[in-house]
Every structure is written in C-alpha cells, then in structure tokens.
Design a protein that fits this description.
- The chain is α/β, with parallel strands linked by helices.
- It contains 11 helices and 8 strands.
- The longest helix is centred in the N-terminal third of the chain and has 20 residues.
Length: about 400
C-alpha cells in the first residue's frame, strides 16, 4: 500500500548551517519536526519518515554547472571563497561540509518527487527544501543548490509532461524561474513581495517566459504591507485559474513562511492562519488537477520559534490528511523546549486568530487599490496565453 505522505527528515539535515547569527538557522527545522511529533502528526498511520543521503554529481548536473559544483566542493573542504559564484558572501558564507549538506536537501526533494510520480506515496514534504534562489552557476539568498529545480527536472526525466511550481515565499522564486524560463512543460508561479522593496529585486508581471514558453512564467508582485485579505485575493485571482488551465501532471509548491507579519527580513503581513489556508488550497488543487501528486517544500522563514514551526507543522499535517484545528493548544513540553532555546515565550496555540475573509476577484476590480493593480497586471500579462479572460476568469 502506498504511503499517505513521505516526510523527509534526518538529523543530518541540520548540517546545512551558515553559522551563528545567520538568519537561516537549522533550529527552525528541528523545532518544526519536534512540534509535528508533539502534536501526533508524525505517528499517524500512512506517514513515513524518510532518511536521505547527498545527491550524486550526475543528479546535481541536471541543473548546475560542473564548474560551480567544483567551487562548492572547494568551499566545503578547503573553505575557499569564490565571490563570482556567490560563495563566501554575507548571505552565503562557506562552511565545512557545505556540499554534502546542500546535496542532501536536493535528494530529499528529488526522492520525494519521484516517489509521488511512481505512486509510492500520495504526497511528499521536504521542509528543508525550497532553496529557490540558487542559480545553475552560483549560490544566492541562502541557497547553494536548487533542490526544487532538480526535483522538477527529475519528474520530467521520469516521464511527467507538465509540472506546475507554485512559490508563496515572500521572495521571488528566481532560481527555479531561470532554470525553466524556456521550457513550456514547466509552469512557475511566484507570489511574492515586489522587487522594488525586497531581494532579489526581480519577478515582474511582464516576465512571462522565453520564446515558445510564453505564459509559463507567472509573477504576482505584491505591495509591501499586504496582509491576509490581499494575499488570499491574489492567490485566488491568479494561482488557481492558471494552474487549472495548465493541467499539470504534478504540483510542486514552495511554502516559505517569510510572508508572515513577524518575519524580520520581509515586509508582508500574512498570518499563520493565512499560510495554513493556502497550503490547504494547494492540497485540494493537487487532488483536482494532478490526481493528488503533490511535493511540498519549505523555503524562507526567519521567525524561528513562533512562525516557522507552526506553519510547517500545519503543512505536514495537511499533506498527511490530518489537518490540525487552528485552536489546538501546543503541548507544554514543546513550549518549554522553545522557551529554553529562545528565551522568549513560546506560542500557545496553532493559530494567530486571524480573520481570513477576503474579496474574491469575481466581485470586481478596484483601480485605486495597489494590490488590485498588481494582480491585474499579472492577469493581463499571462491569462491570454492560457485561454483565460483577464477581466472575468
């Protein structure tokens, strides 16, 4: 019998660490798995925890340049900086074991994708994954190897004809977009804070894909300060109609939770509840359009103890068909552990108590609203390529 969900996890994944003080602390992974376990999600029937080894050079070369792999290996074993390849920067300092740590994340996403495609599991989750800024020849934005791109390439190599990638991280999913810019078999959708106010400064509505692949790159650039109502309106107005029109064989999603209002690196104002709601909708979408084939990845998220573990514990539970009631109290033992680690009070429930009401796009467009203008720009740029009406569909 196929698993309900495979959750990629092993302590070795904590080895992806840029050092003390870096925003992407591996603690966020550890406390997330601890919370999912404390809530009983990982013990449910049909949930399988999967250990992973580093990806092979052959697998990495499906996306990355040979020269870049050599540079990462040199950084990993000799501490050698290569600023031309993004290695040794403030965002991506080199560390011992960098190659193996990053390659292990790749295996988690690639193996999860292949298990989903082969029917060995309904869904797969790799919270360590989602390293969407890594480019074929360089590191960027805390990302060394692009696990999402390698996983998508693996799906195509295994016979998938169409793959949809939906990225709801606060930062534009530029690396995945770059890899598949000219490939009409891959739809990349990124719902992110506008590049006018946030790294990497890309992801404009007018970016729609290369020659022969027009319309397969979709960017929704949200105004800084966008909260639940606007964020959910944007997802409703763009993500679902385009994915349904594209009709993918597999849905891959990236759930960076730095869109949260408490995140220290971005400027959006989304709640844990809003991010849980979008994960639920993507789960339903996978069942509707891809026969349930769904790979869910982590990504950004830098409020390590309050936001990240709650959002991703919800994600794992949704993939396990074991949704957690937002009002669920968080077990005392987990709270004590987090308070010891962080020195601040831990969250006590799985909700922010947010109001998730929003105005669907079908109720009309407000030309005086910054959010609506951003959404409309995207719809006008890409909807005609999918046979959709930018005003009414």
């Amino acid at each position: 019998m196929a698993d309900s969900v495979r959750v990629v996890w092993c302590p070795a994944l904590l080895g992806y660490s840029f050092g003390p003080g870096h925003p992407m602390s591996p603690l966020r992974l550890d406390v997330t798995i601890a919370l999912a376990r404390a809530l009983g999600v990982l013990q449910r029937e049909g949930v399988r925890m999967v250990d992973v080894e580093p990806a092979s050079e052959e697998e990495l070369l499906t996306v990355h340049d040979a020269g870049y792999l050599a540079a990462v290996r040199a950084a990993s074993s000799e501490g050698r900086h290569d600023l031309s390849r993004g290695l040794g920067t403030e965002d991506d300092p080199v560390f011992a074991g960098m190659h193996d740590a990053a390659a292990r994340i790749v295996t988690g996403s690639l193996a999860g994708a292949r298990a989903v495609w082969a029917g060995e599991t309904a869904h797969a989750v790799n919270i360590a994954g989602g390293m969407h800024h890594a480019m074929p020849g360089s590191a960027a934005g805390f990302c060394v190897y692009n696990d999402a791109a390698v996983a998508i390439r693996g799906l195509l190599d295994d016979g998938a004809e169409r793959v949809a990638y939906v990225d709801v991280d606060a930062h534009h999913g530029d690396g995945v977009e770059r890899v598949f810019w000219d490939d009409p078999r891959v739809l990349t959708i990124s719902v992110h804070e506008s590049g006018r106010t946030l790294f990497p400064g890309t992801g404009h509505p007018s970016d729609v894909g290369g020659a022969g692949a027009e319309g397969t790159v979709v960017n929704v650039a949200l105004p800084a300060g966008t909260g639940d109502a606007g964020w959910l309106r944007a997802v409703d107005a763009v993500v679902e109609p385009v994915v349904r029109a594209f009709g993918p064989d597999v849905l891959v999603s990236q759930h960076g939770c730095d869109a949260h209002r408490r995140d220290p690196l971005a400027h959006l104002a989304v709640s844990v509840d809003g991010q849980r709601h979008v994960a639920e909708r993507l789960h339903v979408l996978a069942h509707d359009v891809s026969d349930g084939r769904w790979l869910a990845l982590g990504g950004g998220g830098y409020d390590l103890f309050d936001v990240v573990p709650r959002v991703w514990a919800h994600l794992i539970a949704i993939a396990a068909h074991a949704d957690i009631d937002p009002a669920t109290p968080i077990p005392d033992g987990w709270q004590r552990t987090v308070e010891t680690l962080s020195g601040v009070p831990a969250p006590t429930t799985m909700t922010d108590g947010a109001d998730l009401s929003y105005r669907p796009w079908s109720r009309g467009y407000n030309p005086d609203d910054d959010l609506d203008r951003a959404v409309r720009a995207t719809r006008q740029a890409v909807f005609p390529y999918h046979g959709l009406d930018p005003l009414n569909d």
